[in-house]
Amino acid sequence: MAARRSFTDSDTADEAVRTTCDDATICKRFATSKGYWKDSCLQYFVRNVGERKAPEINRGYYARVQGVNLLLDAFLKKTQCLCQVINLGAGLDTTFWRLKEENLLPRKFFEVDFPTVVARKIHYIKTKPPLSKPIIDEHSSDTLLLEPHALDSDRYCIIGADLRDVSGLDEKLKKFQLDPELPTLLLSECVLVYMTPAQSSSLIRWAAETFHTAMFINYEQVNMSDRFGQVMVENLQRRQCSLAGVEACQSLDSQRERFLKTGWENAEALDMMTVYSVLPQEDVARIERLEFLDEKELLQQLLQHYCICWATKDKLSLGLSQVAF
Ligand SMILES: C[S@@+](CC[C@H](N)C(=O)[O-])C[C@H]1O[C@@H](n2cnc3c(N)ncnc32)[C@H](O)[C@@H]1O
């Protein structure tokens, strides 16, 4: 009886975590409709612009997307795109299509998420030519591997897997020609926080042990032990979404430490208030003119409770430790 109950509970919790990808996509869709940044593909994952979002939310997403893109693009330039990218917990993220448009595609772009999320994304890709065409254009033979929870082509691969099962993940990625010898960028955006610190540590350690030249970009909550952080946790708990990994989100140091303890050579972390202040200021001035912001203090608090942490190891001496804002 007890076992059955706990299965049901964890199933509900996983389902709540899976729905967070819609929240992210809906917010990005709204912000792009206001002109914060351009994304030609979000419309195929969320048709309607949806309810208005507060300006501080839009600015927060702007800082998140620009900050992560800046580091990702710097890695692609350092490796001259002779690399692979693995987006862990990718949800409905559109980075593959942006990189294709900007002629910055890595050798192969992998995405991983729960099988049900992947099945949905594959459905969108199959039914929307602007999503499928770039994948087909980059594929050299007539046949693509297409399964309910996996799609594999020369340059794009999406796999259904649970990131808490590292050996299963490793097996699936290798089945789809993951190359441990290639410089590799791993990306997790609001994902590790949904796993226990032990589970995220195994994932981070697996990445450090598998790739000799790599960078890991992690965007998520920080400074979670203060009152504002606790309210964020409570709000998510109300939606059955528990932040199992909140312990690793106590400070910038705890974010860095988790990488330094698991085999990474360097790790840096900045809160998003700092990232916002070091993004190209001309563009920041442009987006600040888009909407009037009344709640300046709320924006500051919000940005102080998210961070980007990036870690590197660099056997090929590509200068990855110099990648920074
Ligand atoms: C907040 S969403 C972020 C999605 C995407 N990274 C973005 O920024 O738009 C978190 C994503 O992580 C995925 N996720 C969380 N835990 C996971 C796990 N254990 N295995 C696979 N995917 C997971 C969820 O399904 C969801 O798509």
Automatic annotation (TrEMBL):
S-adenosyl-L-methionine binds at R64, G89, D162, L163, E189. GO terms for cellular component: cytosol. It catalyses: [phosphatase 2A protein]-C-terminal L-leucine + S-adenosyl-L-methionine = [phosphatase 2A protein]-C-terminal L-leucine methyl ester + S-adenosyl-L-homocysteine. The keyword Transmembrane does not apply. InterPro entries: LCMT1 (IPR016651), Ppm1/Ppm2/Tcmp (IPR007213), SAM-dependent_MTases_sf (IPR029063). GO terms for molecular function: protein C-terminal leucine carboxyl O-methyltransferase activity. The keyword Transferase applies. Keywords: Methyltransferase, S-adenosyl-L-methionine, Transferase. It is an enzyme of class 2 (transferase). Belongs to the methyltransferase superfamily. LCMT family. This is Leucine carboxyl methyltransferase 1.
